[in-house]
Design brief:
Elements (H helix, E strand, L loop, with lengths): L1 H28 L11 E6 L3 E8 L2 E10 L2 E8 L5 E5 L5 H22 L1
Antiparallel strand pairs: 1-2, 2-3, 3-4, 4-5
């Protein structure tokens, strides 16, 4: 009788393991689909002469593009549902300087997003 209980217990453990793996697969499939829109957060990308900062929160996104010019740089801000705004910044900087601004923007954004959650 004791042997049968041990065998039944082993079978139950296997069934529970299979059920847990199945549940994990179902919950993974039902999770947030990143292809439906941008995920929350901030990212920085560098192109030839510009730095692009992209932020997204709650389905809304914005992009700020810092581009080097002969007299300084321009800052182009674009957000969902708003007209783009371009600001001339007559302040000499470098690509490293623009990248640092982008990184600081994302650091502040991501810190604020973490606190808000």
């Amino acid at each position: 009788m004791h042997k049968k209980l041990i065998q039944m217990e082993k079978k139950m453990k296997k069934l529970m393991l299979i059920a847990a793996i199945g549940a994990a697969a179902i919950f993974t499939a039902c999770g947030d689909d990143s292809s439906s829109g941008p995920s929350d957060g901030c990212s920085v990308s560098v192109n030839d002469n510009s730095v692009v900062v992209t932020t997204s929160l709650g389905g809304y996104s914005s992009t700020t593009t810092y581009t080097l010019t002969e007299t300084g740089y321009t800052m182009k801000s674009e957000a969902d549902g708003a007209e783009p705004v371009v600001t001339e910044m007559p302040m000499q900087t470098t690509m490293d300087g623009l990248k640092a601004m982008g990184d600081q923007t994302c650091q502040a954004f991501n810190s604020a997003e973490t606190v808000a959650k």
